[in-house]
Design brief:
Two copies of one chain form a homodimer. In chain A, a hairpin with a 5-residue loop joins strand 10 and strand 11. In chain A, 40% of the residues lie in helices and 23% in strands. The first copy, chain A, is built from 13 helices and 13 strands. The longest helix of chain A is centred in the last third of the chain and has 20 residues. The first copy, chain A, is globular. By secondary structure, the first copy, chain A, is an alpha/beta fold. A seven-stranded mixed sheet of chain A has the order 4-3-2-1-5-6-7, sandwiched between helices. Chains A and B meet through helix 2, helix 7, strand 13 and helix 13 of A and helix 2, helix 7, strand 12, strand 13 and helix 13 of B. Strand 13 of chain A pairs antiparallel with strand 13 of chain B.
């Protein structure tokens, strides 16, 4: 099938997807019968451009890499804001990758609602809307007979949500446990090798894993958002931010690390949720000492991992990258190929 | 959608699937719009029965558990052989789970070809046909516009093939590496705790993990079959049994285990294949000493695991059960739900 795509936001993730789409154009057409043109981009910093016949994305990337505005693109309509780009262009899939406040979920929620109400599919790596409104947005998509894909919100392009949704279907998933934040896992890996927390954090910041203000990662807030998402989307509950107990890794000392080592264990920041016998849930983000033969204990560096507890298969674990320009861009491709597959059959 | 199913062979795996289908009948209908009736069973030891309106499977399981023949089922047509059951009943999906020689792939290959040529979908956990004829059988299915699903041939119901086929699509998968045999991993786990090879093997036999003649497992033949399958189905090559180097675990001693331990490593029987730069392949089953921070090193007991090497995501690993009555029966349900999903959209 052939799709017309529009980017709302055009930062690293959107550019990562664009790289993949350009490099794999032929493969995608030949192997998956997926054809595309990118008709519009609207970014609050970079400006906007719309051409109903499709943009030359190599030219677009060149402009952006030079720090220029999209207004300098030679043809097409300029100056459309996000909402107009969603409503008034001929795009049939909206790629929502704006910079969004993870707590409020805005402006992404507004963009996604607008698109779904306009009968357009949405793929997005924005966590905020899924943390705040997963159930409502999925219902809205269903009502409008379109798809809302967000594989990238947990474990980036590692297909953790699709694993639960497609491949484990028929199972009753009763809980999960995972290393859901790469930055903290990177810091713990360095501390395991002897570095202090402060030095490990500095190194993570140098590599771009941690932000200047690392609170979101090291205090477990990022992992907490993912626990909320998995609980609502995979376990079918409807919890919010406050329902999750939380403790970060800032109080873990070298002494703690060494003590664990001598017991044959390893500290990991674990996000988890289990459905209790009465149907209530117990959700938390908490540092745990795992025995070395736990599949999650061997997951080092910035790698992420997620174990689902199922009734038919017992524990099923997936391990893979949890961040990165192309790795997260690839998550959007998973969603795009799902839409293609669903509509094609 | 509603399907009419026929079992060719009715051993533990078929009975495992039947348990799941009976217990989850309502869930499957409500959540996945999957309805079924089982119209026929033909088993070389247990006899056969056919009722175009569907069999009462609780009654069938009662008979089988008492060691009785299907001829004692109160109604329906008796005495049909496998081929007639495939061709002459009103079944639209054939569940091929006969006892089959893994080297020749027979009689399963004949059953599967007959079914596909008759325009019937096939789901099967038999490794032989996939080792010998994956490419040919998949082509035949395509020609006849039906599906041939075999998720259970690698890692039982842990969705390893579907992970590659659906969720990682868009990636170029360049190789894989896995713990593909649970029995040997169980033996190595016990040896790690101090048991001798002989005692560990005996324990595996007591638990039903290893057969009286354990050659297939301990000499790496079972893992080898899976390497052939993954190479042909996931990497898109067309190799056979002889193209894989092989060494089992029978020569690993307690001394080797202890030496690895002192290096911070752990022995695992690894099945792997990598596509070389010239497009040729390097496939083997070989014991390897893995560092403890390799995601495969923490996989203990009879659990299986498989790492795919991809161009977009780097390494992606799935860990889960590799055997078991219900776990393997569940693999057939994955295939059935895929058929349902593909035809429904």
């Amino acid at each position: 099938m052939k799709f017309k795509l529009a980017f709302i936001g055009f930062g690293t993730v959107g550019q990562g997807l664009t790289d993949i789409l350009l490099e794999k154009k032929e493969l995608l057409e030949k192997k998956y019968d997926f054809q595309y043109s990118i008709v519009a981009i609207s970014d609050i910093m970079k400006g906007s451009v719309y051409d109903e016949n499709g943009l030359d994305m190599k030219k677009v990337l060149e402009l952006v890499k030079k720090g220029k505005k999209l207004d300098e693109y030679p043809t097409g309509q300029k100056g459309m804001n996000a909402i107009d780009t969603i409503k008034k262009t001929n795009a049939d899939i909206i790629i929502e990758v704006t910079y969004t406040d993870v707590k409020t979920g805005e402006p992404a929620i507004k963009h996604i609602k607008t698109a779904l109400n306009a009968g357009k599919h949405v793929v997005s790596t924005n966590k905020g809307p899924v943390v705040k409104k997963a159930v409502e947005l999925l219902d809205l998509a269903k009502e409008n007979k379109v798809c809302y894909g967000f594989e990238g919100v947990v474990l980036a392009g590692t297909p953790s949500l699709n694993l639960a949704y497609y491949n484990l279907s028929g199972n009753n998933i009763k809980g999960f446990k995972g290393i859901l934040n790469g930055t903290t896992n990177y810091i713990l890996t360095r501390m395991e090798e002897g570095m202090s927390y402060e030095d490990a954090l500095k190194k993570a910041q140098q590599l771009g894993y941690a932000e200047a203000d690392p609170t979101g990662d090291v205090e477990g807030l990022d992992a907490l958002g993912k626990v909320v998402i998995l609980t609502n989307v995979v376990l079918g509950k409807n919890i919010s931010w406050e329902d999750v107990e939380r403790k970060g890794i800032t109080q873990i000392t070298k002494k703690d690390i060494d003590a664990a080592k001598s017991e044959g264990k390893r500290w990991k920041l674990i996000g988890s949720c289990e459905i209790q016998k009465d149907g209530s849930i117990k959700a938390k983000v908490w540092p745990e000492k795992l025995p070395l033969n736990d599949p999650l204990a061997g997951v080092m560096e910035a790698t992420n991992a997620l174990t689902y507890y199922t009734d038919e298969l017992g524990s099923v674990t997936i391990v893979g990258p949890g961040a990165g320009r192309r790795e997260t861009g690839f998550a959007l491709l998973i969603d795009l190929l799902n839409i293609n597959r669903n509509l094609k059959n």
